[in-house]
Amino acid sequence: MRVVRSMITAVACLVAAAAAQAAGKPSDAEIAALVARHASARIAQRQDMHQNPELSNRETRTGALVAAHLESLGIEVQAGVAHTGVVGILRGGRPGPTIAVRADMDGLPVTEQTDYPFKSTVRSTYLDKDVGVMHACGHDVHTAALLGTASMLAEIRDRLPGTVMFIFQPAEEGVPAGERGGARMMVEDGIFEMMKPDAVIAFHTNGAPPDDAGDNERLGIVAYSPGPAFAAATRWEATVKGRQAHGSTPHLGVDPIVAASGIVMALQTIRSRVLPPLSDNVITVAIFRSGERHNIIPESATLAGTIRTFDDETLATIEARIREIFDGHTKAAHATYELDFHTGHPMTVNDAELTARLVPTLERLLGRDRVRLAPPITGSEDFSYFSQLVPGFYFRLGVVPEGKVSGGHHTSTFYAADESVPIAMRLMTSLVVDFLSAGKP
Ligand SMILES: [Zn+2]
Ligand SMILES: [Zn+2]
């Protein structure tokens, strides 16, 4: 009798322990089991989105399928945010902080040349030209992985101590001329006024081509930069005005090509002779247009380019020096100029505390040697509009399997393995669970 009673007590204890566990924080093994169950459906969805890419601010099909998926999970959905964006709110069964997770949904005007069986043959119009459309930056992987994360978190919602805000944004690659869009528009239209999260996180596929800088693009390797992660981008445009003349009588005109050529060369000295040698920045001239005919000295030359910086002071110095170079060179050439700077995305900065809090989760899941520090990159990300307002963490996930070569982001042979979807689902779900379980920051 005593034996039976102690057995009953032991069983009761086990049952109680199991119940406590079921009510508490999901273990890594439970999350891995959820990934295994949800992976194939989300990979199928990734392939479907890959085959049906949409350009920036035109993500109507993608936005609709995202909204339908979130609704099917019982998540509160607001669709049509910043045109085609979707915001989902999942309230956990217990009180706690709020974390936002973000994916971008747009493709690019690139004609796909991969060997995927689900390769895109979609065509569209971009800048009045007929173009192929491709998920050449991996945003299909981001969207599918975040839908998977939503499926998994919805299943364990009763055990979540806090709230998860899902942000599916349009137009990360850039807003068509004359339109609003992207993360900036979502913020301007008040998504963080509706609910202000305590943190926002996102990842980007890393499908870089092979290079000497290492193998961070290999499937399942995470790279992150504490502090500045992506540069601020500033677009500039200029016109150098001269005076037209016959090509045989240059002394009767003012040649804008020669003046502008001098300017282009002088711009190179800002980086090499004005700024400190270890300053991180880029000054690029990407457009130089002038002339109609071989024997006419043209009236004007158009220049345009981009500046990438990691601090406001450097940007101010670069803008001032560019203006001085245009001033001096045009004066010497008896030409005139117009110069405009257009502020683009701000710098993306990983919040130091949030980074320190989340990196151990990634290291635990992947192993420390697969979670690597990386220098900031001079690309820009409109995730910065979110992370300017709340602490943000953004990492890059390698998506190129052994034996495969990706042509790199924005190329026709960009390659991201299907397996990157379940890997990202596991990482994002665990980051959310660990963040919420640790309580208010
Ligand atoms: Zn891109
Ligand atoms: Zn991208």
Main beta-sheet strand count, sense and barrel state = 8 strands, mixed
Helix content: 25-40%
Strands ordered across the widest β-sheet: 1-2-6-3-7-18-8-17
CATH topology of the largest domain: Aminopeptidase
Would you mind describing this structure in some detail?
It is a single chain. By secondary structure, the protein is an alpha+beta fold. It has two domains: 27-229 and 347-437, 3-Layer(aba) Sandwich (Aminopeptidase); 232-343, Alpha-Beta Plaits (2-Layer Sandwich), CATH 3.30.70.360. Helices cover 37% and strands 25% of the residues. It has helices at residues 2-23, 28-51, 60-72, 139-155, 182-188, 191-194, 256-274, 312-333, 352-366, 384-387, 420-437, and strands spanning 76-81, 85-91, 94-104, 123-126, 129-132, 161-169, 199-206, 222-224, 227-230, 232-241, 245-246, 281-290, 296-297, 300-309, 336-343, 348-350, 371-373, 392-398. The protein has an eight-stranded mixed beta sheet, with helices on both faces. A hairpin with a 2-residue loop joins strand 4 and strand 5. Helix 2 (28-51) crosses helix 11 (420-437) and helix 7 packs antiparallel against helix 8 (312-333). The longest helix is centred in the N-terminal third of the chain and has 24 residues, at 28-51. It is elongated and about 85 Å long. The two termini are 52 Å apart. One zinc ion binds at residues 137, 139, 172, 204. Residues 137, 139, 172, 204 line the site of one zinc ion (ZN).
